[in-house]
Amino acid sequence: xxxxHLLWYKRDLRVRDHAALAQAAAQGTVLPLYVIEPxxxxxxxxxxxxxxxxxxSLLSLADELHLLDATLCVQQGEICxxxxxxxxxxxxxxxxxxxxxxxxxxxARDRRVAAWLRAKGIxxxxxxxxxxxxxxxxxDHWQRQRDRxxxxxxxxxxxxxxxxxxxxxxxxxxxxxxxxxDLALSDALLQDRLPTSGPEAADQLVDGFLSEKYxxxxxxxSSPVSAAQSCSRLSPYLALxxxxxxxxxxxxxxxxxxxxxxxxxxxxxxxAWRGHFMQKLEDExxxxxxxxxxxxxxxxxxxxxxxxxxxxxxxxxGFPLVxxxxxxLQAGGWLNFRMRAMLVSFSAYALWLHxxxxxxxxxxxxxxxxxxxxxxxxxxxxGTTGINALRIYxxxxxxxxxxxxxxxxxxxxxxLAPLSPPWIHQPWLLPRQTAKRLGVCLDRDYxxxxxxxxxxxxxxxxxxxxxxxxxxxxxxxxxILRRHGSRKHAGSRVRRHTREERQLSLxxxxxx
Length: 512
Description:
This protein has 512 residues and is mainly alpha-helical. Helix content is 51%, strand content 5%. The protein contains 25 helices and 5 strands. α11 (245-258) packs antiparallel against α12 (262-283), α12 (262-283) packs across α17 and α15 (337-350) crosses α17 (371-382).
């Protein structure tokens, strides 16, 4: 067949273990394409830091393709208009891409692309990655299917790749990729806090984890003091497909055969849960926009407290661990899994905020934002799945247990730096004379707690549990459990989550 085979890059910015690249290369002349879609960047879950990370990853991908004697074609505009222009110039024989588990906008865009390609008679080959299945799989057998995918041989680089000699018109020079301001993304950039881009950086993180970090993983992942040094920090690379999840899984498996260790097994479990949650959103995209358990709709939405939301966003709630974690996340774009869960739980129960606006705020902050993980997890921590236990954090107790010396709190709450335990964990209890001696004015420098934690969370728990006991809610919960509940072994019946599994499933993108 004449024409070019279009290799459409989305959230798979690599050349290794790349089914779409291998298949396109085997069938004819290849045009690797990335499309900058301004409308995507106007969506409320995207921000400048996402573009900054993606831009750096595109440049690394271009270097990888150059080694295969191919040039990455970057175009900007509405995708069907871009395809129409390329088709007129080069004639598209087929489109090859991976299945993308994105947000609602990307789902709708893919439907538009599918319709355009059908009208033109152009085949579109979509290949699975991360073990995600399309169309919807039988969940009783999904785990077995995912395990087969992860155990399959790594796809080799093409032995020969024939790339287009001349890029189509209107291509964007890699030296002139737009800046965040050009896409109207005005929030603060990460600058030097951005991870090092490229597959070599991901390889170094894997090697570092397998050589030493795994020994400290379980003991250090939960505390914000130690998590950055204990976790693999692979999540930004996995989110954009800079590295292959299958390749990482196989490297960990090889290490486990050499030395079985709980730390290695724990990361494997979390990578499996990553796929489990991504499949949930693939199966039920409405999770991005509405409660999974519809019977809970309206419970929080009509009572949204804007001042509480603003305080939570700014890190000014009066609860030190909440505020320190939010400020840390704002500065660096990453936070460990337990603290992500704590931020959501606090907003949902202590502040009684409907999860959608907090979810969008966190999505904009996370460099490793993965819609397929993010929305199911936010709903899980907010109590709107209907099938998971309520996880209501005592944020003061968490601070005392996870940062007993107040190291993390003092760094990110400089206004409280003169305080030592126990006052830094509960500054509202600080005696007036002690505060004066230390030069701390709490009313001026740091706010009093904006809610009574005990009373607010007790009331939230009661309201959620009362709503769940309604007949319609219980019936719906059983349906949700059958559709989305975990299976212990491939092919086994649906069962309730154990305490260990609920612990494993908290914000796995941040934990990696």
